[in-house]
Amino acid sequence: MNYIARLQQDLTAALEQLKLKDETLRAFRAHSAGEKFSGFEADGSRKDWIAVRDVDARLLEIIASET
Fold it and tell me: What is d(CA 62, CA 3) in angstroms, rounded to the nearest whole number?
Protein backbone atom coordinates (compact mmCIF):
# COMPACT_ATOMS: atom_id res chain seq x y z
CA MET A 1 0.00 0.00 0.00
CA ASN A 2 1.43 3.36 -0.93
CA TYR A 3 1.73 6.31 1.43
CA ILE A 4 -1.27 8.26 0.09
CA ALA A 5 -3.54 5.23 0.18
CA ARG A 6 -2.46 4.60 3.79
CA LEU A 7 -3.21 8.23 4.73
CA GLN A 8 -6.63 7.99 3.08
CA GLN A 9 -7.36 4.80 5.01
CA ASP A 10 -6.24 6.43 8.28
CA LEU A 11 -8.40 9.48 7.54
CA THR A 12 -11.44 7.32 6.85
CA ALA A 13 -10.92 5.47 10.15
CA ALA A 14 -10.46 8.73 12.08
CA LEU A 15 -13.60 10.25 10.56
CA GLU A 16 -15.61 7.16 11.49
CA GLN A 17 -14.31 7.36 15.04
CA LEU A 18 -15.31 11.03 15.24
CA LYS A 19 -18.76 10.18 13.90
CA LEU A 20 -19.25 7.51 16.58
CA LYS A 21 -18.14 9.91 19.31
CA ASP A 22 -20.45 12.62 17.98
CA GLU A 23 -23.41 10.23 18.00
CA THR A 24 -22.59 9.11 21.54
CA LEU A 25 -22.26 12.71 22.77
CA ARG A 26 -25.57 13.65 21.16
CA ALA A 27 -27.25 10.67 22.84
CA PHE A 28 -25.79 11.77 26.18
CA ARG A 29 -27.11 15.30 25.71
CA ALA A 30 -30.56 13.91 24.88
CA HIS A 31 -30.40 11.70 27.98
CA SER A 32 -29.48 14.62 30.24
CA ALA A 33 -32.30 16.72 28.77
CA GLY A 34 -34.83 13.93 29.24
CA GLU A 35 -37.61 13.38 31.73
CA LYS A 36 -35.31 11.81 34.31
CA PHE A 37 -33.66 15.19 34.93
CA SER A 38 -36.56 17.57 34.20
CA GLY A 39 -39.13 19.10 36.50
CA PHE A 40 -39.78 18.35 40.13
CA GLU A 41 -40.35 15.30 42.33
CA ALA A 42 -43.64 14.76 44.19
CA ASP A 43 -42.04 16.27 47.31
CA GLY A 44 -41.11 19.44 45.40
CA SER A 45 -37.41 18.71 45.09
CA ARG A 46 -35.67 19.32 41.78
CA LYS A 47 -35.04 16.44 39.38
CA ASP A 48 -32.11 18.07 37.58
CA TRP A 49 -29.44 16.48 39.75
CA ILE A 50 -27.22 14.10 37.82
CA ALA A 51 -25.70 11.05 39.47
CA VAL A 52 -21.95 10.83 39.11
CA ARG A 53 -22.23 7.15 38.14
CA ASP A 54 -24.60 8.03 35.26
CA VAL A 55 -22.17 10.62 33.96
CA ASP A 56 -19.19 8.30 34.37
CA ALA A 57 -20.97 5.47 32.56
CA ARG A 58 -21.82 7.71 29.62
CA LEU A 59 -18.28 9.09 29.44
CA LEU A 60 -16.91 5.55 29.44
CA GLU A 61 -19.19 4.80 26.46
CA ILE A 62 -17.65 7.76 24.63
CA ILE A 63 -14.12 6.65 25.44
CA ALA A 64 -14.92 3.08 24.38
CA SER A 65 -16.41 4.17 21.05
CA GLU A 66 -12.92 4.26 19.55
CA THR A 67 -12.36 1.94 16.65
Answer: 30
